[in-house]
Design brief:
- It is a single chain.
- The protein is an alpha+beta fold and 411 residues long.
- It has a domain at 342-410.
- 38% of the residues lie in helices and 21% in strands.
- The protein has twelve helices and 20 strands.
- The chain has helices at 30-38, 95-105, 152-157, 180-187, 225-232, 235-238, 286-303, 308-341, 343-354, 358-372, 377-384, 387-410; strands spanning 6-8, 27-28, 50-52, 54-59, 62-67, 75-77, 109-111, 115-119, 128-132, 136-139, 142-144, 168-170, 172-177, 190-194, 201-209, 212-219, 252-254, 257-259, 267-268, 271-273.
- The model has no long low-confidence stretch (mean pLDDT 93).
- Bound molecules: flavin-adenine dinucleotide.
- The site of flavin-adenine dinucleotide has 32 residues, from helix 7.
Length: 411
C-alpha cells in the first residue's frame, strides 16, 4: 500500500526544558523496547541516559531491592526533549526527536507546525482538512496524537462527534542535577519507588539519569510545585540527596497531566485519536500504551477501513482491553495505598520478600510486575489473591504484631 504520511508537531523537541519536552519520567519499559525493536526502532546508546538494573522500593520499614529475574538490564531511561532546562547539553539526546527521525527514515514527512483546527467532511467521500497558522493539509485520515498537555483537547471536544477527553490530574516533576558520581553511588542504576504512605501522594519515584535524577509525584488531587518543595524536605529525601542539598534557583520542573479515566468515543469517520488523549494504562507505561493504540488504529485503517463503524469494530473494541484492565490497576493501587499506611503490613511484606520462604517468590514477582508493568493488571491481581500467599501473609502479619507487642513490653 502506498501511504503518504505527514506528521505535524507543534514543538521543537530538540530544545531543552519544557519548550522541547513532553513531560514524562522517561522510563522505557522492557516490553516497550521489545515492541519498538519488532518494528525496527533500536534505541541508540546516546539517547538512553541509563540502563536500569532494577527497582528499589523504599518504605517506612525498610527497603527492598528487586532485580530483573534474568539479571539483565532491559529498561532504559531517556529525556523526552533535549535534557532539562538550564542544562548545557550540547549533543542531541531527545528521545522524541529520535522517534521523529525514525519516522522520517521510514518515509513520513515531518512539519514543525501547530495544528489550529481540524475540519471534518460533511460527506463521507470528502477529505478532512487540517489547518495550521499558514497552511491547510488535506487528508484521507487524520490521527490525533496530541496528548493531554494541550488546549487542543478542548477544540476537539467542541467538534461534537461525541468525543470526551479523559479526566486528568496534575502531577509534578523536577529534574535535579546532583552529579553522576552521587547518582551512581546512591541509586546504583535502580529506580526508587517511594512507598512511604504519605497522605495526599499516590505514587512517587526517583529515576536516575546520568548526572540528573527525575523526581515524579502523583497525588490524589492536582499537585502544585510547593508540594514538591515540601516533599524534598522530608527526612527520607534528605538521605537520598547530597548533604546540605537545597533546591537550586534554576531548576527544571513541570506539572504535566495524567489520565485517570479513558476518553469517550475517540473516533469518527476519517478521524481517530490515539495515545493519552484516547486511553492508556493506569499510571503505567504511557508511551507503550501510545504505541499500542497507534498500532491498533493503523491496523484498523489498513484492514477494515477509516469509517466510524470500522474504528468502533476494530480499534476501539481492542483498545477497550486497556480500559477493562485499568479497573484492576485502580484496585491494585488502592490496595497499595492501604498497605503503605499500615505499618505492620508493610513490615510483614518486607519480611516475606526478604526471606527465602516460597511466598517470597510470589510477592517479589507481584512487586516486580507492578513496578515494571510487564504484565496486565488483571494478571497481577490474580497473583495477589493467591490463597497460599494470603494465608502466609496473614500469619506473618500476626507474627509482626506480636513481635512488636513483646518488643514494646520489654522496653
Ligand atoms: C508525571 C508523568 C510521568 C510519566 N512517566 C512515564 C514514563 O516514565 N514512561 C512512560 O512510558 N510514560 C510515562 N508517562 C506517560 C507518558 O508521558 C504519556 O503516556 C505519553 O507521552 C503519551 O503519548 P502521546 O503521544 O499520547 O502524547 P504526548 O507524549 O503528550 O505527545 C503529544 C504531542 O502532540 C503535540 N501536540 C499537541 N497539540 C498539538 C497541536 N495542536 N499541533 C501540533 N502538535 C501538537 C505535542 O507537542 C506533543 O509532541 C508519564 C506521565 C506523567 C504525567
Amino acid at each position: 500500500m502506498n501511504l503518504d504520511l505527514s506528521i505535524l508537531e507543534g514543538k521543537y523537541v530538540v530544545r531543552s526544558g519544557p519548550p522541547g519536552c513532553n513531560f514524562c519520567a522517561g522510563v522505557l519499559s522492557e516490553t516497550l523496547i521489545k515492541k519498538m525493536e519488532r518494528i525496527g526502532i533500536i534505541l541508540p546508546q546516546e539517547i538512553a541516559q541509563s540502563s536500569v538494573e532494577g527497582y528499589c522500593m523504599l518504605t517506612k520499614k525498610g527497603e527492598l531491592w528487586l532485580t530483573h529475574p534474568l539479571h539483565a538490564r532491559k529498561i532504559a531511561t531517556v529525556f523526552r526533549g533535549n535534557g532539562p532546562l538550564f542544562s548545557n547539553i550540547t549533543k542531541n539526546i531527545s528521545f522524541d526527536d529520535f522517534l521523529l527521525r525514525e519516522a522520517l527514515k521510514m518515509g513520513a514527512r515531518v512539519y514543525y507546525k501547530k495544528v489550529s483546527s481540524i475540519e471534518l467532511p460533511s460527506k463521507p467521500e470528502e477529505k478532512v482538512l487540517v489547518k495550521t497558522e499558514d497552511e491547510t493539509f488535506e487528508a484521507d485520515l487524520v490521527v490525533g496524537a496530541f496528548g493531554l498537555n494541550t488546549d487542543f483537547l478542548e477544540k476537539v471536544k467542541r467538534m461534537e462527534f461525541g468525543y470526551k477527553p479523559p479526566k486528568v490530574l496534575k502531577t509534578c516533576q523536577t529534574e535535579l542535577k546532583i552529579g553522576s558520581e552521587f547518582v551512581k553511588e546512591k541509586f546504583k542504576d535502580f529506580i526508587f519507588i517511594l512507598n512511604i504512605g504519605i497522605k495526599g501522594f499516590r505514587f512517587s519515584a526517583i529515576i536516575p539519569k546520568g548526572e540528573y535524577i527525575t523526581i515524579t509525584l502523583v497525588g490524589n488531587d492536582d499537585l502544585t510545585f510547593s508540594k514538591m518543595e515540601k516533599f524534598l524536605k522530608e527526612d527520607f529525601m534528605k538521605k537520598l540527596l547530597p548533604d546540605g542539598f537545597s533546591l537550586p534557583h534554576q531548576h527544571c520542573h513541570c506539572l504535566p497531566r495524567i489520565a485517570v479515566t479513558s476518553a469517550k468515543k475517540p473516533f469518527t469517520d476519517r478521524f481517530v485519536i490515539i495515545g493519552d488523549a484516547s486511553c492508556s494504562r493506569y499510571y503505567k507505561n504511557g508511551i507503550e500504551s501510545a504505541l499500542i493504540t497507534a498500532s491498533l488504529a493503523a491496523e484498523t485503517a489498513i484492514n477494515l477501513g477509516i469509517s466510524e463503524k470500522d474504528f468502533r469494530k476494530g480499534y476501539w473494541r481492542k483498545a477497550r482491553k486497556i480500559i477493562i484492565d485499568n479497573f484492576f490497576g485502580r484496585l491494585l493501587f488502592s490496595l497499595n495505598d492501604f498497605i503503605a499506611r499500615a505499618d505492620f503490613i508493610v513490615e510483614s511484606h518486607i519480611r516475606i520478600a526478604r526471606s527465602n520462604s516460597f511466598p517470597f517468590k510470589i510477592l517479589r514477582n507481584i512487586l516486580w510486575n507492578m513496578f515494571t508493568g510487564n504484565i496486565d493488571y488483571w494478571r497481577i491481581f490474580l497473583k495477589s489473591v493467591n490463597p497460599f500467599l494470603l494465608i502466609y501473609m496473614a500469619f506473618s502479619g500476626i507474627r509482626t504484631i506480636l513481635d512488636n507487642f513483646f518488643k514494646k513490653k520489654k522496653e
